[in-house]
Design brief:
Blueprint lengths: L1 E5 L3 H23 L5 E9 L4 H13 L5 E5 L3 E12 L4 E20 L2 E25 L2 E24 L3 E26 L2 E14 L3 E2 L2 E8 L2 E2 L6 E10 L3
Antiparallel strand pairs: 1-11, 2-4, 2-13, 3-5, 4-5, 5-6, 6-7, 7-8, 8-9, 8-10, 9-13, 10-11, 11-12
């Protein structure tokens, strides 16, 4: 059974937010005083675990009194990230800030001559991150680096239910929820510098430790399934192409 129940988990999360703000301020100060900068943009694909929401979707389908078919089940989708890095120690190390976004969703529906029923789960995540990168080795024209980020992740989730009976009667229901928390993402990056441009391929894995989903206007009203708080989980593989430009 899926319900919204109250919780007091928000206090610990507020302390994490203060820590994140301190980290972002420190990195931001370094960036503002740097003589060398490396802005970049990356795009790619990511997989998303979404174990709780998959169970939640199955639970809803079980309660529908007619057969419903899942057509999308939180598939891999495009991810984006923009960052600015500051090289130091002859460019072997870099620190910086980044902003990224990702989204996925699911759909289950059924339709015939008498009407249709559709239920959509739409999930979007935006993150702001502190980044660190270290050059591991150089060979020929290639550079192999390890980098990772600690991110503050904001998640929005919308449940849309649409029931149409014939041509006259239509019933729609929309529920908006949200969550926030921290995630980490270790990655390996293979780069080819060409003068001031740097082209890279990047692969890693994101680990999402966000709080359970709750009503947007009430953090204590958490989404429950079988008496347990549940949330979105963006954990999964990340594959990206990165284009950077060296300034200074």
């Amino acid at each position: 059974m899926n319900t919204l129940q109250t919780s007091t988990s928000g206090y610990a999360l507020d302390r994490f937010k203060l820590l994140a703000a301190a980290l972002f301020l420190t990195i931001g100060t370094v960036c503002s005083n740097a003589q060398f900068l490396e802005p970049s943009f990356s795009f790619g694909y990511g997989s998303f675990a979404m174990g709780d929401l998959k169970r939640f979707q199955d639970n809803i389908i079980e309660q529908v009194p007619f057969p419903v078919r899942i057509t999308d089940n939180f598939p891999m989708h495009v991810t984006y990230e923009a960052s600015i890095m500051v090289p130091f120690a002859q460019g072997r190390h870099k620190v910086g800030l980044s902003f990224g976004s990702m989204s996925t969703g699911s759909r289950a529906n059924v339709s015939d001559y008498s009407g249709s029923y559709t239920i959509d789960h739409l999930v979007k995540g935006t993150k702001i991150s502190t980044n660190y990168e270290v050059l591991m080795l150089k060979f020929s024209v290639f550079e192999l680096a390890f980098n990772g980020n600690l991110s503050y992740l904001k998640t929005t989730y919308q449940l849309q239910e649409d029931f149409v009976l014939g041509d006259q009667q239509r019933q729609e229901e929309v529920v908006d929820l949200a969550a926030s928390g921290f995630c980490i993402e270790p990655r390996f990056k293979l780069s080819i510098p060409i003068k001031r441009l740097v082209f890279s391929l990047q692969a890693g894995y994101m680990i999402d430790a966000s709080s359970p989903l709750h009503l947007k206007d009430d953090k204590d009203a958490e989404l429950q399934l079988d008496d347990e708080s549940i949330g979105a989980d963006f954990s999964g593989i990340r594959l990206n192409t990165v284009i950077a430009f060296r300034i200074g």
